[in-house]
Amino acid sequence: MNVFSRQRTQQGGFSLIELMISLTLGLILSSAVVQVMISNNSTERLNRSIASAQENGRFIIARLRNDLVMTGRYDLLRPELNKDVDIVVEGAFVHNNPIPVVGDFSNGLTKGVIEGAGTASDTLMVALQAPQDCRGATHGYVDEEFMVVNEYFLEGTSLKCRGFDGRVLRGLKVAVDDDKAYSLLDDVVSFQVQYGVTDNLASQDNSARPVKFIEADLLGAAKAAGSLVVAIRIALLLKADSDVLISPVSKFKLLNEDPIQPSEERLYKQFETTITLRNSKNFARSRNI
To answer: What whole-number distance in Å separates Cα of residue 158 and Cα of residue 96?
Structure first.
């Protein structure tokens, strides 16, 4: 009995200091684990935000390129072409005005490309022969092609397109379909456009090369001098679909516009592309100067 009593007396627990050290080390380790988890979560959200912006950018560039590459197309020999109007005159209009400016349409005097004031977004308008407009509307034609006029513009932060029957805009026909706009992509902060034009008629240059890129407000004078639009340069600023906060927000310079400073502390991505209008280039090469 005495031996057992001595053994129990000699046994002891942790001291207060040891417990405090253990608790402190445990708190430090727990805090480190929490910080790693928070960092991993923030990194994952940032990666998702970047991937979302990249995906949206690739989508809208591909969509616009697919829509715009056929600008200026007009084939008199296509059997699908509706011939309710003088197609020779209509073909000449499309070839000479693939990018309509304000005043080109007798029944749509305000329709045409528009240069946004300051850093405001631009409005793009194109003409071509097609079976439907950018929204998929056929404007009453059945399995036929006609003169399509598509308009692209920014409304709020939504990039939209609106399609017209060019014959209605020229005062040759009564509208059948409405002209409601269709949203292509949301979270667009800025949409800017420049137009690559050939040299004027007096230069005797028939190469169809874009000698310079100009804004919409200069396009009317260039066309009057005999220049043709053979390329379109587009720039977009997109906001990532995420709640990731980025501070400070960088400034972005789209084409030759003044730098844009977004107001929200979000992730933004800038995208640019140049689209060659092959139909307009072919027409420019075929002109007798």
So the answer is: 31
